[in-house]
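haha ok so turns out i had the wrong file open the whole time. this is the CORRECT one, sorry everyone. sequence first:
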Amino acid sequence: MSGSESVTPGSLIDLLRQSIIGAISTATAPGKWRVVVADRPALKIVSSVLQMHSVLEQNVVTIQLITRSRQPYPDMDAVYILVPCADSISRVIDDFRVDSRTGEIQHRQYARAHLFFTGALSDTLLAHLRSSPAARFIKAVAELYIEYNPIESRVFLTTPSEQPFYALYSPHALNLVSRDLDAAADRLLSVIVSLGIRPYIRYYRPSPSAPYEALEPSLMSGYGTTTACPRIAESMAALIQHKLNDYYSHEQSNTNNSTKRPETLTPSVVIVLDRSVDLYSPLLREFTYQALVHDLIDLDRGNKYTYNIESTDGQPQSAEAELSEQKDPIWKQLRHWNISEVSQTLADQFEKLLKDNFGIQAAKQVGKKLTVHEMKAVLSELPEFKRLQQSYSLHIDLASKCLEIINRNSLAILSDFEQELVTGRSMNGGFVDRTSLETRLISLLDDVDIDSESDRRRLEEVPQCLTINDKRAAVNLCRLGVPTDREEEQFEFPSSSDQYRWDTMSEPENGQMRSRLVPAVKCIINEQISDTLSTDLFPWAKEAPPESIPKNILNINATSLRQ
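then structure:
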């Protein structure tokens, strides 16, 4: 593990890293050199959490791609990290060829093979391995369950598609929904196994009277009407439960390790939701540091920020920083804070940094001669001080740019109006009617201090400028349970008792710019903790926890829902 990377308790990134390093380092005897062989999907997983030198430090001579022509190492063992598919199995077998008549070895790529699969290996593929000539060279076979992509310590991606809404909700994407749901379920299973929990699964299921339809676990005979909203959460919960049952059966029949039996694992609750439960939250502006940086600042490759620093000769030069909780402790500490708190905290911390630096304080004492010990202390502080100074400069620059854009475009005023539209409540908690909202919108568009010319033009030209795709996108909102046609009589849209409803309003703290909308997921988790979550709208996929286990169990180690 790189010295510049911090460890977060319960971090999915750290769990994934430990699984991979553990497989590589323990496959052969300590001190023996080895080769790592991977296919492209597995290599992508490895490189997402480990740098090349971290792998090579495990007595690894080289990392080879299984699909390429490779240099043989017949005197060294190979650690294979592969996805459990027929192509990878065939390539492993091809690395150890034996004459079927004489039994003589025709080709031996490595001394022995230690096979680690990213997910569950099917019985068919395992039987194919065991019956192949390569079986005599295979020292071990294990499943790591690392098929997930953690982008933060507690955030990971489940959908493989670049257009998940189309793949999951379109009635014309039946070939994609099957693939995406199955892949997402595999990734969720990997996370569950990595965390070492025994989940009791709940899922969002609107009332049967609402225009929703479940997808069959066989994936999926059809979507039915093009106006019904598919029950993605229900279908996903069924898939996860099915894969969990298979995993438990597999572990009980193939391992002597009693710690992997379901009854020995930590009981937890997993709640499966889809976007139809809350359409508002992703559309509204969030005033936390991380959200604003991604919303307002031009980042390269998702988390790379380029800014100017002063070089040693006093000239400005360009620098690139990676906004990562693993590498940037300031980003990790402040990313979920409100932007107004971030600016003040950065100023206070930077001032403290200067105050605590021995070299700076010594320089201020004009005329005083430093002792040898004091000079050594000054020199020892310089590298760390420069690193921290550069890090603080980065975040002061970022926070200042965010505040500048907010003030220049009157985003706080516009955000307040967005909140009124969604919550139906003003900042002081009073109810706002439609006439007041329309009047407020006209006033905002006429405000010369707000850059609204383009917004005004778009509103005026809506009927003319909508493309066919724009119109389809608006109509397709019905796939998320949103009424798009007042005259639609094919079905009735959900009433307040058909779908999940929650108190959307929260009181903003004094002096803070923040969203007043409470995300549905926060209320759902709070209701689960207090054991008040509706079993009609959120049934259990298989069974509720036994009476001996509280139904409000949640495996939450974080100090906030954002972390």
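The chain has a mean pLDDT of 81.
again sry for the mixup
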